[in-house]
Design goal:
Structural class: mainly alpha
Largest sheet: 3 strands, antiparallel
Number of strands: 3
Shape: elongated
CATH topology: Ybab, Chain: A
Helix content: 40-55%
Strand content: 5-15%
Distance between the termini: 27 Å
Length: 138
Amino acid sequence: MDFNQRIEHLFQEYERQRSSLTTMQQKMREISVSATSPRREVTVTVGQNGTLTDVTFPTGAYKRLAPAELTAVILQTYAEAKEQVVQQTAELLAPVLPEGMDAQQLARGTAGADMFLPAEPRMATSVREFLNLGRAER
């Protein structure tokens, strides 16, 4: 493959990745999960980034709970919905992340700086070969 073909291939790959990222961002904006407590006292809906978007009481069961118990049920149900949002977010992120990046850690916000700025910069194998840098040792 000559130089012009390599450059053209790199631009095509860039456009493919950009399109994939745009699609992923749209899907992430659409994430919405509802969870209902085991005894149906409350249903909590959570959107992207764990944002609470709705709380409903599908039955009158909540009326039998003391305020502290109702608070605990709401918080537990919210935690369950938020965990499902994190799982869905990680599933969307995983295919577009570079090798070695943990989608779960990224979705949870627990990824360390090394994940974003490794000791050796990430670059496509074709670029690395073109620059005669060889393969990165992992």
